[in-house]
Specification:
Layout lengths: L1 H13 L6 E15 L5 E17 L2 E22 L2 E27 L2 E27 L2 E11 L10 E13 L3 E10 L11 E13 L2
Antiparallel strand pairs: 1-2, 1-9, 2-3, 3-4, 4-5, 5-6, 5-7, 7-8, 8-9
Length: 214
């Protein structure tokens, strides 16, 4: 991870030439966690990023960036047994540092509009993740007990890996040379679980708006 951050920092510093354009962006992030056994789980969240656009010529561009990504999943279940009601609320939070290294190829359809396709790898490192479970019970019209526990998902000995490497791409459009709208999909290559005979992959859908300083 240190080597990736160092390499990206060097790239970003090198990109401070007169031809590079700084950009900041934000948008929606959705992640499907696909286990080899059981149902897929969908997480919603957002991302914010800072990076550079480096023209390479002939319509090509290199866009390295550093991105913070937050993901959340909330699940509520209620069981009714005669006069007893038990409600369980599960909340999952995950925070990531991503390093997308995207190449794009575009075409100017007008002086103020450029459409493009992009593709490239993304390195991802988990910063923090936890699971909070809250159980509430009641008997008839009377409120009962309430219990809440929080557990770190990346504690020592965890079977859940922090690391991931994704490959992906998408489409976008630049408007008035300052605004960039893009939608992309990343496919997770790393098995995120250490459990024997199981696999867990993360696949991401992202849509965002970027402002480019020119």
């Amino acid at each position: 991870m240190k080597r990736i951050i160092t390499l990206t920092t060097i790239i970003l510093l090198t990109a401070t030439s007169a031809f590079a354009q700084v950009n900041i962006g934000a948008g929606y992030s959705g992640t499907s966690m696909n286990p080899s056994e059981g149902d897929n789980q969908w997480y919603n969240g957002f991302h914010v990023s800072v990076g550079y656009n480096i023209p390479l010529g002939l319509g090509f561009e290199f866009s390295p960036s550093i991105e913070y990504n937050y993901l959340n999943r909330h699940k509520k279940e209620t069981v009714e047994l005669e006069n007893i009601s038990v409600t369980t609320k599960n909340n999952f939070n995950e925070h990531y540092l991503n390093i997308p290294l995207m190449f794009n190829y575009g075409y100017e359809i007008t002086p103020n509009a450029r459409i493009f396709i992009f593709a490239g790898p993304t390195g991802s490192f988990g910063l923090y993740a936890d699971h909070t479970a809250k159980t509430e019970s009641s008997l008839g019209d009377n409120s009962g007990s309430s219990d809440k526990t929080t557990e770190s998902l990346w504690k020592s000995g965890s079977d859940y890996r922090r690391w991931d490497v994704k490959i992906g791409g998408g489409i976008g459009i630049d408007i008035c040379r300052h605004w960039r709208i893009q939608v992309g999909y990343d496919y997770g290559l790393i098995n995120r679980t250490k459990v024997d005979d199981m696999k867990l992959h993360h696949h991401n859908l992202k849509a965002g708006l970027t402002y480019m300083f020119r």
